Amino acid sequence: MEILSEIGERLRLFNARLAHVYTETSLEPDLGPHVNELDLDENLKKALIEYGIETLYKYQYEAFRKIRNRENVMIISGTGTGKTEAFLIPILDLALKGERSVLVYPTKALARDQLTRIYKLSNALGLNVGIFDGDTPEKERERLYRDPPHILITNPDMIHIGLALSERFRKLLRTSDHFVFDEVHVYEGVLGSHLRNLVDRIREFSDEIHIIASSATIGATKYLFKELFGVDGDIIEGSKRRKGIAIHALIDSNGSSRWTLAAYLAAVLVKKGLKVLVFTDSQQMAELVAKISDRFSINLAVHRAGLIAEERIKVEEKLRKGELDGVVATPTLELGIDIGSIDAVIMAENPPSYTKYIQRAGRAGRRNKIGLIFTILGDDPIDSYYLRHPNEFFNRQIQSITFDPTNLEVIKIHAAAYLVEKHRIFLGDLPYLWKKAYEILNLNGIIKIVNDYAYATPNTKKFVASSSLRSIGPIVRIYDENNKKIGERELPVALHDLYPYAVYLISKKTYIVKELNLDNLTAKVKKINGELTYYTKPLYSMDLLEFNKKDERKVFGIKVEYGDMKLLMSVLGYVTYDIYSRKERGRNEYKYDNPINFTYNTKGLLIYHPLIEDFTLIDNMETYHATEHVLISAARVVAGASLTDLGGISYPSGHVVIYDSAIGGSGVAKLLFERLEEAYEVALDIVKSCNCEDGCPKCVYSPYCGNNNKYLSRKKSLRLINSLISGSLNNMEREREGKPIV
What we know:
Layout lengths: L1 H10 L5 E10 L4 E4 L7 H10 L3 E3 H11 L4 E4 L6 H14 L4 E4 L3 H6 L1 H10 L4 E3 L6 H9 L4 E4 L1 H10 L1 H8 L3 E4 L8 H14 L7 E5 L6 H8 L4 E4 L6 E9 L5 H13 L5 E4 L3 H13 L4 E4 L5 H12 L5 E4 L14 E4 L6 H8 L9 E7 L3 H8 L1 H5 L13 H15 L1 E3 L5 H12 L3 E4 L2 E4 L1 H8 L9 E5 L5 E6 L12 E4 L2 E9 L4 E6 L6 E22 L2 E21 L9 E21 L8 H22 L7 E5 L4 E6 L7 H7 L1 H14 L24 H13 L16
Parallel strand pairs: 4-9, 4-10, 5-7, 5-8, 6-7, 8-9, 11-16, 12-14, 12-15, 13-14, 15-16, 20-24
Antiparallel strand pairs: 1-11, 2-3, 17-19, 18-19, 20-21, 22-23, 23-24, 25-26, 26-27, 27-29, 28-29
């Protein structure tokens, strides 16, 4: 394409290049029967034909038959290939027979976005459709209670609070016949743990519930269905890819700032009349790209979590109306919210997983247009790996979602909510982890246990009313100098953004953090007029305070354990980085007189590396710290981990800890534990293929390193990993000791 040639020329200004171009072409799924051949209500047949659906795809027909037969199913099919119609047609037919369905979308915005689509068919059939969320007016709620709709549209947060606190909502939900969970690929990590426990509450630990699930991008099995919903279900697959043509390009940034490059590329495309969506995985980097774009004379708004909801809605409306050149977003715009036609997607960093890559790429070129997708690869180990093996980038398997159904922090929230609903529960009737959750809640004074019965108290209701399915960590509220709330961040991730003197960006405005108070969970910030030439990252340490082993295995002859962990995070200071240039390390470091400490529980693995006999203490520190970094990088390939899903700690004694960053655990560390041999193989490729002197961003440096990438050696890590895989090291287990390095 001519536009690719021009972009290739423009990239030379930054010493960057188009490294690989891949053209994706996908045809329609196989056709099935004509609508008139189906055992459908005649009015529904007529409505479908008027809507433009005359023939079902084969997979849609299979879904139709199974759903009509009350079989649990998960429908997987690419963007624009009719997965919504695959479940909508049978539930409309069932509605005409008097049966009621609940459609659950992961967010309130997406649920409301689907209304128009559903109304087009339901109105023609005289069916009652209602939406019930936090924004539903009281008058409309009364109507829904009085005359329950054939199709109720809601979200997990509403179900969580409604089941616990509203008897009328409870009745509305529990008298429904079918439950549809759309966009299930979103339910990974902590949100997946919440969904499993929420479904346990809906079905009240029985199998008498009809569940339909749907997703455009997920690697699904019957095992996943059982893990996610607690009941058995079948998988129905349509087309694995989106319909239409898309041009995918990998860009080698070659040392240039990926944030500047993303803003510049957006400017080139916008000035050619294209609508652009830029993705980052960091809230602060989204703000940074938007600010840099101002220098290229284009207006990119920011859409991310942590903003006030009204701000996000304004951005969506302006983009839909064509009032913006484009948007820089975190995963908040991955889902199919209608934001109008997007011509090009720029991924300023390699997405955390291939599933997320496909989901983001699917936002470009919809409505029968060719989509342009650009991914900027930087100097980190996995980006360098894919620059060496570009075909592997596009031939990856779509992985299943990862979550931890045993996350006690999550179960505590749902156990308390279920108790508020039931008032009294006999503990002998519950699964083991629920009983354990009630015991912890009892110790914390949130519930009461008497003679094997749990009882709700006023504290239980308060606890549930203040809980959230979007987080399990404490929430830090952010206030400006006028004491106006401007955002919020969840712990422990808040410690990476809101430490004293940190540069904090929100809605393209620059603030300096003046104070962080973990006792009352507030941060005070001051707005800065003008531009700063630097941004900040924290200097911090981590330590493993407690470890409770749950599993153990041998990997290349060395012991690896997995279990519950109690961690201490201490923010020691911060480091500044130049915005418009790429530095291997920060330019200045600043230390606090008193560290900021936060303790939390999670899950992770503990690796017992052997010592190399001729290595000194410093050699050991450099060896195991580098190996920790490169194994976390390798987890992006073998476990679908994002850059921030996992953290690590190294000890001079050879012990390496890799843990889930989420409080309570996300399941990613467990997957790495199970696939650790593969991770070492990828790690070997990374440290072996780099031609640096002894450590750089392409191999063992990490942008999230707590000590600013000190004590790292690529060559020593290479020696260790090589020796492990070849089995040439003597493995003598020893006690963990020495100062931790992160």
